[in-house]
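Why predict the complex rather than its parts? Because the way molecules touch one another can change local conformation, and only a joint prediction can capture that. The input here totals 532 residues.
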Amino acid sequence: MHDPTENRSVLLKIFYPVVALVLVVVAWAFLVWFYEVPRYVMPSPSDVATHISEDWQTLVKGFGVTFLEFLLGFTLGAGTGFVFAVLMDMSRTVRGILYPILILSQAIPIIAISAALTIWLGFGLAPKLVIVALVVFFPVVVNVLDGLASVDKDVLNLVRSMGASKFSTFRHVKLPATYSPLFSALKLSATFSVTGAVIAEWTASTSGGIGAYLLQANSRLNTAGTFSAITFLAALGIVSFLLVVAVEYLLTPWKSGHKARRWSRSYWQE
Amino acid sequence: MEQAPKLALKGLSRTFGDLTALSSTELAVKPGEFISVVGPSGCGKSTMFNIIAGVLQPSTGKVLIDGKDVTNQSGHVGYMLQKDLLLPWRTVLDNIVLGAVLKGGASRAERDEGVALARRYGLGDFINHYPAALSGGMRQRVALMRTLAMHHDVMLLDEPFGALDSQTRLSMQQWLLSVWEKEKRTIVFVTHDIDEAIFLADRVVVMTPRPGRIHEIIDVPIERPRPVSSLTRPEFVALKQRILGTIYNNASPANEEAAPHA
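Output of the joint prediction:
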């Protein structure tokens, strides 16, 4: 942050989204006021703000519940997907057998299996984690598999000529090559995973998450409540996405800078 | 009595199916010698190179280093290609010490040595940079330092400057000579560029295709150090003519396409 232009670009990065948000809210308020839309059809931003301030505690608690579902399910799905990809990369037989199963798992709509999952796994956290995991799983497998296959043959020959073992080739050459495609998959599926968590809460809504809140408000024609829930879900999606971006920033320093970071292990000092 | 060779190829050959990529080859390289290998596509340069590096099995014959049989064994020679093959997620220093890292981790001493190499050869300010921030010439220098840091007496360089523009290439050639003079390694340098082959080497190995083989080994009697002006000296031009003649009399262009493994 010694470079003043860098400071400016960081400010701009925050400035533009804020402007965009303000524009959306202003347009929303204006349209509701101008067309005199009744409150039960479409609440104004101020109605939603009032509702949020009145029901603040329940909403924040719901946010926490849904966020936990996302976080655990997302990690579970990404982790399993990663292991699957590595196994499939190691053996052609494994790849041949797993690939059709993977595609089949994607062909079934999530909403269709969520009811069955509730029957099998109950009304607790488990079915939600599975659904969120299913959303992330497939993109992670496909992208990580691509990353593993994209390693240059000449690099593999080079490290072999250097006397590298299979394990150290995997650790130092193949594994790091998966980071970029892995994070592309995670960024794409972060917001979808939140949708997955909401769908899961709709089928088995005893957890008190935002999805369950939304369903209740909707059934009571409480549009201000519905839109409060939507606001929190949007925030949840953005937080999830930013979380992935932050982890990516920490794990792939070569993509965001010219030099190793001063506090990192690979930074060399006298 | 001849000096015992550092690197010796004894009856080395390789076939791919019906195709003889390299027919029985003998070569002896003296310690500290700089050998260039030139020849058209399909002459077996890269096949020979990969066999010496231990990443390709010969059909017959042996590779000896200091008289020891190292056929089919990798890890005995330094190895560098036209592509720098730097790992983008490792800093310059971490790429230089890659050899040690792959064998279980670079010690403090090995890292210090990597830093010393980078400083000695003009990359001292880029130790903590990632390869993406470097120019093509700088990246090739890092690749060579990675090769040097592995402490092999024999280094195989396969068209290391092939992808660089001609000016960068010329300065890299001079830089390589200065490194070679300081480090006293034995170098086998594969290239398409006949000027480059003569300018760098003590001896030029001329290879010809169908079947791939060593056609002739030519001494380069130009004294060192060699300034850029030696590129235009009459001995240099005469050598170049001789090598060009050998290559073009033996490679009929009609067969050029058939080479599967150049």
